[in-house]
Specification:
Layout: E1 11-14, H1 22-27, E2 32-37, H2 41-44, H3 47-54, E3 59-63, H4 72-86, E4 90-95, H5 97-109, H6 117-120, E5 132-136, E6 148-153, E7 158-163, E8 171-174, H7 184-202, H8 209-231, H9 236-249, H10 264-276, H11 280-295, H12 301-312, H13 320-337, H14 354-364, H15 376-386
Parallel strand pairs: 1-8, 2-3, 2-4, 4-5, 5-8
Antiparallel strand pairs: 6-7
Helix pairs in contact: 4-5, 7-8, 7-9, 7-11, 8-9, 8-12, 10-11, 10-14, 11-13, 11-15, 12-13, 14-15
The structure holds 5,6-dihydroxy-NADP (NZQ) and zinc ion.
């Protein structure tokens, strides 16, 4: 078991109707609020009006139109500008992970005098950030309980995971009823994203019995509950369980004491969504089983056996490589069964830029140091197998 130093300062307020606490929470940070949101889903579900009504005594400025795979230019830059011009006290993010990630970059940029990209690209360490409150409307990223945000810069094809302990939300509101309207596509992608967050922590050198059990339960819960959400989008219990599964995903709590894994599938997927603007969870679902097949070896097989037996109930008496291969097939079949397109070609990616993307990943993601090390050729092979 490895040493660790862990703290999550985020207050989680969970359940139906918890938004009634919003005025009390927001007033503790000040009067001037920047409200950030996406392309309009919060208006369709009545949440925008509700927030405005609850906060009628505050001074609210707005940054709408934050896109999936949130963009540095214009969203981060516009948000930073508003915060500085209006002397904003606190940012309220209402939407999915993209809105919240963008909000995190804005929160740090608002307290920095130079170009916010200096912070996102780790050239400069932020000294402060504005407080963030969020109402998360999509179960997927876990951004509501972690200190990271992923920002895309279109002109350089960069998609960078910007992590800093200053970026934890101060308060996250999690009301599962707000996820009732999430489409089947985004529900499935959210499930795949959260499952992959767990796998990125599960497949490592040194794990504990406690963590393995926690993560295996998380994976099983996600599979069962995502199916229920797809069958009945207004199943409160399923939406609630899925929401909390996702919230735990990226916070590190699943893997306290585990050795680092290198998060290889995320390293590879971020190139796909940077170059082609695809849905992150779909990219992960496509890559994951191909990555598994690629790294299966004498060194890694025992982890796959544990995964196969405990998550999918595969007969533990079989040959260990049979168990591992069955587990990989089950992973593929599950993603396919919830409607995820399982080939890069299905999401508009052909072979033309695979080499360029593999080079970008090899240069920027440090996957030579992953649990199962990947060089540029390995990455290219995984991309090709995903076509
Ligand atoms: O833009 P609006 O109109 O709000 O619509 C969104 C968007 O089109 C819609 N949506 C959100 N809530 C809804 C809803 N539609 C109906 N009803 C609702 N209640 O869903 C679409 C996708 O939203 P988005 O925020 O992009 O999805 P998600 O939460 O999956 O976030 C994906 C982003 O998070 C990053 C990904 O790379 C990607 O950029 N990640 C962030 C992480 C983190 N902060 O820790 C970790 C992840 O690994 C991931 O990389
Ligand atoms: Zn992810």
């Amino acid at each position: 078991m490895q040493n660790f130093d862990y703290m999550t300062p985020t207050r989680l307020i969970f359940g139906k109707g918890v938004i009634s606490k919003l005025p009390e929470v927001m007033s503790s940070f000040g009067k001037k609020i920047l409200l950030t949101y996406g392309g309009g889903s919060i208006k369709k579900i009545g949440l925008y009006d509700k927030v405005k009504e609850l906060l009628k005594d505050s001074e609210i400025y707005e940054l709408p139109g934050i896109q999936p795979n949130p963009k540095y230019d214009p969203s981060v830059l516009d948000g930073v500008r508003i915060c500085k011009e209006k002397n904003i006290d606190v940012i309220l993010s209402v939407g999915g992970g993209s809105v919240l990630d963008c909000t995190k970059a804005i929160a740090a940029g608002a307290k920095y005098d130079g170009d916010p990209w200096d912070l996102i690209s780790y050239k400069v360490k932020a000294k402060a950030a504005l407080p963030i409150v969020d109402i998360i409307t999509l179960a997927a990223t876990g951004s509501e309980y972690d200190s990271g945000g992923v920002i895309s810069r279109t002109e350089t094809n960069d998609k960078i995971g910007y992590v800093d302990s200053l970026l934890y939300p101060a308060v996250s509101f999690l009301d599962p009823t707000y996820t009732f309207t999430v489409s089947k596509k985004q529900t499935a992608a959210g499930c795949a994203d959260a499952m992959n967050h767990i796998m990125e922590q599960y497949f490592c050198e040194d794990s504990t019995l406690l963590n393995d059990g926690f993560m295996e339960a998380g994976l099983k819960s996600l599979m069962v509950n995502a199916r229920k959400c797809l069958d009945n989008p207004e199943d409160y219990t399923a939406r609630a369980e899925m929401m909390l599964d996702c919230t735990y995903g990226c916070n590190g709590i699943y893997a306290l004491g585990n050795s680092a894994s290198g998060w290889p599938c995320h390293g590879m997927e971020h190139a796909l969504s940077a170059y082609y603007d695809i849905t992150h969870g779909e990219g992960l679902a496509i890559i994951t089983p191909r990555w598994m097949k690629h790294i299966l070896s004498d060194k890694t097989v025992d982890r796959f056996v544990k995964y196969g037996v405990n998550v999918f109930g595969i007969d533990s008496n079989l040959d260990k490589f049979d168990i591992a291969n069955k587990a990989i097939d089950e992973t593929y079949k599950f993603f396919e069964s919830i409607g995820i397109p399982m080939h890069l070609k299905d999401v508009g990616i052909d072979e033309s830029r695979l080499g360029e993307m593999a080079h970008h990943v090899a240069e920027n993601e440090g996957l030579e140091n992953a649990w199962a090390p990947l060089n540029e050729q390995d990455i290219l092979d995984i991309f090709k197998a995903s076509l």
